[in-house]
């Protein structure tokens, strides 16, 4: 007889299940709790005797009941395990997070495995839920994503003006051109440049020049619609494309910008500085083969605006 040995082994098993650092729950077909280990007791604040035989969804109303029932039912039916990750549902049981390192997370992030438990007839009479605390790795992953998003923004945005930098703006612009080729929806490009900007730098200094560039950028932002995309194309050269906008409407936008900038005053070292811009406008058309040709058309219009007096808007031919 080795019953004593078996009993001892059984005792150890129960002890391990009770103290292991994952949550263990056994449910019957009616979602009634049949087993509830120490992890679940400690984190939920509800002892096994309190929840024994209670319907789990009644005892824990925060659970995503429909979603979980669907998962559990498929385990009963298919006799296969199911696995869910915190990326699908961050928190299954809403347990408070007490980990010192990831103290920023309010609730414990959890993965869950659902295991079919067979009775002696080979039928699934119960399922076991195993709840893993994955708060540390989830928080690390979320923080990494946050930093990556910030880096992505930094690589797209010009530091002085907070407009898109040339590289990012041009890649967006080339996509817009491709979209035009498919949809043939009118889109216009405005390209503009601060007049005699060298003189601003030479007279008032580089810092004053920077302030002028920032004031111009703010004026651009103030005049943009949601769908317009603006960039700093060069030192004191800016580009904006206006989606779903014909040339005559783009001209109105450009004229409004011209007047707005003409009225700006930048104060530097007790001096009031005024400035103007020249603008070129080109609507995309079917003869253009690449986005560069579109840029070229707007640039030629800008050149004309500069050549024929500055502080004006010229339209591409
Ligand atoms: N302060 C400042 N100046 C810049 C920056 N980027 C370019 N510049 C200056 O912008 C000036 C551009 O001068 P030009 O291209 O000769 O043109 P302009 O004086 O504006 O004359 P027009 O365009 O013909 O009206 C140069 O003096 C550059 O040094 C910048 O980020 N900050």
Automatic annotation (TrEMBL):
<dbReference type="GO" id="GO:0052621">
    <property type="term" value="F:diguanylate cyclase activity"/>
</dbReference>
<dbReference type="GO" id="GO:1902201">
    <property type="term" value="P:negative regulation of bacterial-type flagellum-dependent cell motility"/>
</dbReference>
<protein>
    <recommendedName>
        <fullName>diguanylate cyclase</fullName>
        <ecNumber>2.7.7.65</ecNumber>
    </recommendedName>
</protein>
<dbReference type="InterPro" id="IPR035965">
    <property type="entry name" value="PAS-like_dom_sf"/>
</dbReference>
<dbReference type="Pfam" id="PF00990">
    <property type="entry name" value="GGDEF"/>
</dbReference>
<dbReference type="InterPro" id="IPR050469">
    <property type="entry name" value="Diguanylate_Cyclase"/>
</dbReference>
<dbReference type="InterPro" id="IPR043128">
    <property type="entry name" value="Rev_trsase/Diguanyl_cyclase"/>
</dbReference>
<dbReference type="InterPro" id="IPR029787">
    <property type="entry name" value="Nucleotide_cyclase"/>
</dbReference>
<dbReference type="GO" id="GO:0043709">
    <property type="term" value="P:cell adhesion involved in single-species biofilm formation"/>
</dbReference>
<dbReference type="GO" id="GO:0005886">
    <property type="term" value="C:plasma membrane"/>
</dbReference>
<dbReference type="InterPro" id="IPR000160">
    <property type="entry name" value="GGDEF_dom"/>
</dbReference>
<feature type="domain" description="GGDEF">
    <location>
        <begin position="185"/>
        <end position="317"/>
    </location>
</feature>
């Amino acid at each position: 007889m080795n019953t004593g040995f078996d009993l001892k082994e059984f005792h150890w098993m129960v002890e391990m299940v009770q103290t292991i650092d994952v949550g263990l729950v056994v449910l019957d077909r009616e979602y009634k709790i049949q087993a509830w280990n120490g992890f679940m007791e400690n984190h939920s604040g509800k002892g096994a005797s309190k929840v024994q035989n209670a319907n789990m969804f009644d005892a824990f109303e925060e659970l995503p009941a429909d979603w979980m029932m669907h998962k559990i039912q498929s385990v009963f039916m298919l006799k296969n395990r199911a696995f869910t990750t915190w990326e699908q549902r961050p928190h299954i049981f809403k347990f408070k997070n007490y980990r010192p390192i990831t103290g920023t997370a309010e609730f414990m992030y959890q993965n869950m495995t659902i295991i079919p438990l067979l009775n002696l007839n080979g039928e699934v009479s119960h399922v076991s839920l195993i709840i893993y605390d994955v708060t540390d790795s989830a928080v690390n992953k979320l923080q990494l994503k946050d930093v990556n998003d910030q880096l992505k923004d930094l690589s797209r945005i010009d530091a002085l003006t907070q407009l898109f930098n040339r590289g990012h703006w041009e890649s967006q612009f080339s996509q817009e051109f491709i979209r035009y080729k498919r949809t043939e929806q009118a889109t216009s490009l405005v390209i503009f440049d601060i007049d005699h900007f060298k003189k601003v730098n030479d007279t008032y200094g580089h810092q004053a020049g920077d302030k002028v560039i920032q004031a111009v950028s703010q004026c651009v932002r103030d005049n943009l619609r949601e769908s317009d995309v603006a960039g700093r194309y060069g030192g004191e050269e800016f580009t904006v494309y206006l989606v779903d906008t014909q040339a005559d409407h783009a001209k109105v936008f450009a004229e409004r910008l011209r007047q707005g900038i003409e009225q700006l005053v930048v104060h530097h070292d007790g001096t009031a500085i005024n400035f103007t811009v020249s603008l070129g406008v080109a609507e995309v058309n079917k003869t253009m083969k690449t986005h560069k040709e579109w840029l070229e058309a707007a640039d030629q219009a800008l050149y004309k605006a500069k050549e024929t007096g500055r502080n004006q808007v010229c339209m591409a031919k």
